[in-house]
Amino acid sequence: MGQGATDFPKSLAVVWLPAVCGMVVWSAAALLPYAELAARLHGKTLLERGFIASNDPENFLARAGRVALREHLERVRARGQPLGSTTANGWVWVAQVADRLPADARIYVNGPSELLYYYGTFFWMPRRVDVNWRPVIVHGGTIVRSSMPVDPERFGSLRDYGYTHVVAQTSQGFRLLELADPIATSRR
Amino acid sequence: MWRGLLALGVLESIGIAAVTIVCRRQDRWGTIATAGLGFGVGLVVLTLSSFLASLCGLRPVWWFGTVEMLVLLSVAVALRRDRLRAWRLAWPHAPWRAEPGWVRISEVALGLFIVTLCLVVSTVSLLEPLAEWDVIAIWALKAKVLLHEAIADSAYFSDVSKAFSHLDYPLLWPLAMTWVWAWTGHAELEVVKLLGPALLCALLATFYGILRRHHERRLALLFTALLAGVPMLLSQTSRLMSDPALAYFSTGAVGCCYVWLRSPDTGDDLRLAALFATGMLFTKNEGVGLLTLLVVAAAGVLLLRGDVRRSVSVIVWLGVVPLLLTAFWFVFRMDIPKVVEDYGGRIDPSYAWQNVSRLPQVFWAAFRYWGDFTDWLGLWPLTIAVVALGIKQCLRYPVNMLLAWVGLSLMMYGYVFVVTPWDPTDLMEVAANRLLVHVAPLAVLLVAEVTASMLDAGSDSSSCREAGRSRTLSRLVR
Fold first, then answer.
1. Least buried of A78, B219, B294, B382, by fewest C-beta within 10 Å?
2. What pTM did the predictor assign?
3. Domain residues for B283?
4. Are B366 and B430 in contact (CB under 8 A)?
5. Residue of A nearest to B126 (CA)
6. How far apart are CA B253 and CA B301, in angstroms?
7. How many folded domains does chain B comprise?
8. Chain B, nearest residue to A91 by Cα
């Protein structure tokens, strides 16, 4: 290694080493957003921290590596439009529901919501979560055609397939309905 | 929290015991590097054995790894008693060269910078519960499956309605989460995040140890600080993504192989590289490609020198041994339906030919991610500048192995975006920077090696660990 010192122009060290050191010094600036985020998270409940952690417009960690997303958020901010996060709201809602579901529940996600299906499968495990009562392939590219939304008036039929709860994304937000409760079902 | 710390303590002890068994001359690595290497080797040993136990119907339990730790520690003490004693005797008398004041001050400043960065990132990581989309939908989901049921009894791996979680993705990182949850008793969302800071510290300690083997402390600290400050690495580690885990195993495998190429007098470093290569295969599917490139690069540069015997050693230790150690996983994986993407099946050049029109699109889009200051500061432009300006050093043995691996890895990821079944622009938005994380530590190592060459602080340095070890051993012999 040492024998090749002359191949790399030594005069470049004047530029080169300050550039490397400058990068190290500049990276110290990364401490500031981390410290600021730590201050925001400190003293909050688990659900509040989960909301902050999942909130991509507000949390730089949630949008790390996403160049186009950051540009999009900048454009929205520049227009003065409000920035909300479906993911953050979904995280909180799914985590909350996990405590309310009975251990033997079986949940039907009524609609092609990746968030509800993916997060529900994790948070509500070992309870079974489906978007279709038939065995279908589900991934990001197929969720719309794989899911089988059921008309609310026919929710009772899901009981025949062994489901105890239905989850849906409505204009008022996410809803959890217990199929065992015929009154709730008929009202819906 | 203390249960999580105990889980990590057992994991680290397993790794250090295994490193002690594998290495005949552990004193070469030093305490910091041994701790860093121990985490990775511990992960490989613990998760592979947990996988086999789960295949046999055993659900994860805290005592399984604890028994493993006790057995390995006993074997390590029995096999390496003399070496451990010599190391213990030598340690307090490690040579300390008189350095100018500014050198000592800069070393302390760099050390403090790295420690502060780790502490701040760890604090945030532990305050945030699991929240990253991919972690919840893929890695933590698999971990929860493995916590609730043994693989032998699980229907998950053939359930195509859960194909969104990529059923065929390897299980090292999920099994690491399962290990922490086996101690906490349930799949909680916070203590498991301890794995993130532990991984970050282990990666930096290993990287520092690799540089320190042949360079002075200040150079090793400067480039470890450079790596520690890369925002993309910090964010992904903090969020418990699996990409930094693969980056860590790649760093260990390529770095230990590089160290072995420079000082091949024992097989210790090659054996360590083999264990880290095993981790690459069991962490992410990309690990298969990255390891293949390592074997090609290392065996290739040796063949160019006419060293057939050592190139065969590379093929055996980095090609055959990791495959044998993960054979159960690959046999099991053959039966898992691959419905989302199968890049292994797209190596066929006809796919590339069909999608050749995407090449300019992928090529120009790549600069958008390489040049992104928010995620990388100036790491990639810096690497390109180093390669361009120091091309002669880059082509010289064994730095040419690093250059070949970094270059081929970037080309492989470019190829992935060309043949992907998804829209390449959409895929690059979510995946490009994450894939670059796998290569980033080795790019920094390449920059460090060329810089060291420029500063003439290379292998003849009198204060690197190799030189220090020689002095210590000669004193012990006297």
1. A78
2. 0.91
3. 2-83+110-334
4. no
5. A38
6. 16
7. 1
8. B131
